[in-house]
Write a structure and sequence with these properties.
Blueprint: E1 2-7, E2 17-22, E3 33-35, H1 39-43, H2 47-64, H3 66-71, H4 75-88, H5 91-100, H6 105-121, H7 139-148, H8 150-154, H9 156-171, H10 197-209, E4 217-224, E5 227-235, E6 253-257, E7 260-268, H11 270-284, H12 290-305, H13 308-320, E8 326-334, E9 345-354, H14 355-366, H15 368-371, E10 390-400, E11 407-410, H16 414-419, E12 423-427, H17 428-434, H18 447-464, H19 496-500, H20 504-519, H21 523-528, H22 533-553, E13 558-559, E14 564-565, H23 568-583, E15 588-594, E16 600-606, H24 611-631, H25 635-646, H26 656-665, E17 672-674, E18 677-681, E19 684-688, H27 694-702, H28 709-722
Parallel strand pairs: 3-17, 5-7, 10-12
Antiparallel strand pairs: 1-2, 4-5, 6-7, 8-9, 9-10, 11-12, 13-14, 15-16, 18-19
Helix pairs in contact: 2-11, 4-9, 4-28, 6-27, 7-9, 11-12, 12-13, 18-22, 20-23, 20-24, 22-23, 23-24, 24-25
Length: about 725
């Protein structure tokens, strides 16, 4: 599907040329938008717990705005433009202005969907796939609506300036701007526009030499007198770069390193980080126990001074806080969207425990010491003592960031996971909405598989969600592939992320998915979730069928021009599809065909009689290889293995590039979620929910910052303007 749009130059009103725009670069008017239901869970909280959840939510929402600045140079400007429009006119009120501006009903809906997408993704790049999306209406119509809005009539100068800042990148689909990436491969606001992969690698060497984590940093490069100068900017409320006794271990200041100069500075996103800290401080008064108080104190220290070590300390207290009624986590967490794979995107979530499902997960954890020996690697690759994680099912109240996952396994700090543990979190009310599938929109399956798929997809996810990380003794372990003593391991300040960098996230997701596929064949795991006999076999079948179908769908997230993957999970699932196709013996079938509509189509099949034999053996061998390369820091071997299976080829049995075109032709847009707001009225907390629509999603954001919206918007514009020259974007703020 393609969209015909007019591409304009500057502010002229004449249409210079018409281009066909691939449909992957806009959001369809009928995109799924659902409200996350948390009403019952929230009302079951005590008044103290509601206050705790409220202030944690406020901290999360303020911090979530950081993602605008992390995503693209123009995202914050577009966000402010939309907020100014909708704060004065709700979507229903703005409709009259749209009609007066000459927009059709379809064009106005496209405008609302674009705005909802910008809010849901916290930027103008999809959180899942990292491709840019542009408005599905002509640029001249978008501008006309801005000019017709009450916001423009009240402040024409400011609105015209704001439009001038973002009108070009709003619609631009130049090759580099089509996706997130580093250097010529795409856009990234984690790095100044003149940085490339070599700069990211060089900066990592410097950070390792100073024992500094990249998680909460951005990198800016300049050249002074022919010498490379890098600014490592730390996210912190504090702007003072001098040492703060007892508060931070960060080595701020200038450092000569090889032939360059590095300056480590505090103060990135300072205004927003201060807002986060203020609300965490208020949440402390309602903490349920000492672990929660200490956790929040360390988070505040981290966000005040830019110390990742303090955040790690807070994470230790978080792990110790077993089975809380109100669960939360906040900070620079996932590194999926950093093209180098080391910098974390800000996120914060607040959720309420679902006790019934959590009991099942707890039973699974209790069985872990029996189940772990089932994994296909030698005992020497296991830790001496298994640290039981907290594994809970939660109903989300707030999830601020670029998107909402169905489950989380955190913290991501390997040293903490190895020695102190982690938590598994399944987000129940997200799953309930995300896996609601319409049969007529279910692609690439045979008709007799579709009903089974719809019935068992949700239950199969609960069984599939199983992750683990293990340690080893490098002086005694032999490589099970070669029989020789291991020859590589992690040294000094090296970590999984810094060592495996660009493939680390996807590689680990692939390993986790393989563990889930492998262990779901265990009848004990299935029985924990209430699946016995024929039902258990259906769950296994749909779990594996879902994986191979997801591998095919993953092709949407591959960019042929740069030969790169834009989404870690989907790359991982494509790799697993390749492994299972390679296993042969008719386990997985994949054939191209013509659909009932006369357009190219494909069908993927799975022989359920061979899952426990051919399938299990293939995953067993592959999982062992993944584990060995990871555990021994064998980057060369791990990269060769993973990139080999990640290759999207045209030769061989399957033409994956051609299949990619079919997948794009029949893709369904990812759902968006509408979240509630909380407000304090008197001594109580009030929950306000919104309808599951583009208008509802927009209104939820308009009402998210009731007390200081203008100040927040002004600060976002100032932060964006300060760095605009780093991406050759000039704005007059």
């Amino acid at each position: 599907m393609f969209l015909c749009v007019c591409i304009f130059s500057g502010e002229g009103s004449s249409c210079l040329k018409t281009e066909m725009v691939d449909s992957q670069y806009y959001l369809p008017n009928d995109i799924g938008i659902s409200a996350l239901d948390c009403r019952v869970a929230f009302r079951l909280l005590s008044p103290k717990e509601q206050m705790y959840a409220h202030y944690l939510s406020r901290a999360s929402w303020y911090g979530g705005l950081i993602v605008l600045i992390q995503t693209s140079p123009e995202s914050a400007n577009i966000y402010v433009l939309l907020q100014k429009i909708f704060r004065l006119q709700a979507p229903q009120q703005l409709e009259a202005a749209a009609t007066a501006a000459g927009l059709s009903a379809e064009e106005y809906q496209a405008f609302l969907v674009y705005a909802a997408g910008l809010y849901a993704n916290m930027g103008n790049y999809k959180s899942f796939g990292d491709t840019k999306f542009i408005p599905n209406l002509p640029k001249e119509k978008f501008k006309a609506l801005v000019w017709e809005s009450l916001a423009f009539k009240q402040s024409p100068g400011d609105m015209e300036t704001l439009w001038g800042c973002c009108c070009e990148p709003l619609y631009s689909l130049e090759d580099k701007q089509k996706q997130l990436g580093l250097g010529e491969k795409g856009i990234s606001a984690y790095f100044s526009g003149n940085c490339c992969l070599e700069d990211a690698e060089f900066a990592q060497k410097f950070l390792d030499s100073k024992n500094l984590s990249a998680y909460n940093t951005r990198l800016f490069k300049t050249e002074i007198d022919g010498k490379r100068c890098y600014e490592v900017r730390l996210a912190s409320a504090e702007k003072d770069n001098c040492a703060v006794e007892g508060k931070s271990e960060v080595c701020c200041g200038k450092h000569e390193f090889e032939d360059s100069v590095f300056s480590v500075k505090r103060g990135d996103y300072a205004f927003l980080m201060e807002k986060v800290c203020q609300n965490l401080e208020k949440a402390k008064d309602y903490a349920a126990n000492e672990n929660q108080k200490r956790m929040l104190e360390e988070y505040i220290r981290s966000f005040t001074c830019g110390s990742v070590e303090a955040h790690k300390e807070g994470s230790r207290y978080w792990i110790k806080d077993k089975g809380p009624i109100v669960e939360s986590y906040i900070g620079f967490i996932e590194s999926y969207r950093d093209p180098f794979g080391s910098r974390g995107e800000f996120e914060g979530f607040v959720a309420v425990v679902n006790k019934a499902m959590s009991a099942r997960f707890a039973q699974l954890v209790s069985s872990a010491e029996v189940l772990l020996p089932e994994l296909p690697w030698p005992p020497a690759f296991e830790k001496d003592i298994f640290l039981k994680p907290d594994f809970t099912s939660l109903d989300v109240l707030t999830f601020a960031g670029s998107g909402i996952p169905a489950g989380i396994n955190i913290p991501n700090y390997d040293d903490i996971r190895q020695t102190e543990g982690f938590k598994n979190v399944s987000l129940g009310n997200v799953l309930a909405v995300a896996y609601a599938t319409q049969k007529d929109k279910l692609t690439f399956l045979e008709e007799n598989d579709k009903d089974l798929y719809i019935k068992w997809k949700g239950p199969s996810f609960e069984v599939q969600d199983d992750k683990g990380k293990y340690n080893f003794d490098q002086t005694a372990v032999r490589n099970p592939e070669t029989g020789e003593l291991i020859s590589s391991w992690y040294k000094g300040s090296e970590t999984w992320d810094s060592k495996f960098s660009t493939i680390a996230s996807s590689y680990e997701e692939c390993r986790a998915e393989c563990v889930g596929l492998y262990l779901c064949l265990n009848k004990q795991v299935l029985s924990i979730f209430g699946h016995e006999g024929e039902d258990a076999e259906e769950v296994v079948y749909v779990n594996w069928l879902n994986m191979v179908r997801a591998g095919l769908l993953g092709l949407e997230f591959y960019t042929p021009e740069s030969k790169s993957w834009r989404q870690a999970h989907m790359q991982a699932r494509f790799v697993i599809l390749r492994v299972l196709l390679e296993a042969g013996e008719g386990l997985v079938g994949l054939r191209e065909c013509t659909g009932a509509d006369g357009r190219p189509d494909a069908v993927i099949t799975l022989d359920r009689s061979k899952i426990y034999t051919v399938g299990k053996s293939a995953i067993q061998r592959f999982l062992c290889k993944l584990q060995v390369h990871k555990s021994t820091a064998d980057v060369e071997g791990g990269r060769a293995l993973y990139e080999g299976y990640s290759a999207v080829t045209t030769d061989g049995t399957h033409n994956f590039l051609r299949l990619r075109e079919t997948v794009l032709l029949r893709k369904e847009a990812r759902k968006m979620f509408v979240q509630a707001n909380t407000y304090i009225k008197g001594d109580a907390v009030e929950l306000v929910e919104y309808e599951g629509s583009a208008a509802g999603l927009i209104q939820s954001f308009v009402e998210r910052f009731p007390d200081d919206a203008e100040e927040v918007e002004a600060q976002l514009l100032e932060m964006t303007s300060m760095d605009s020259s780093c991406w050759c974007v000039q704005c007059g703020w």
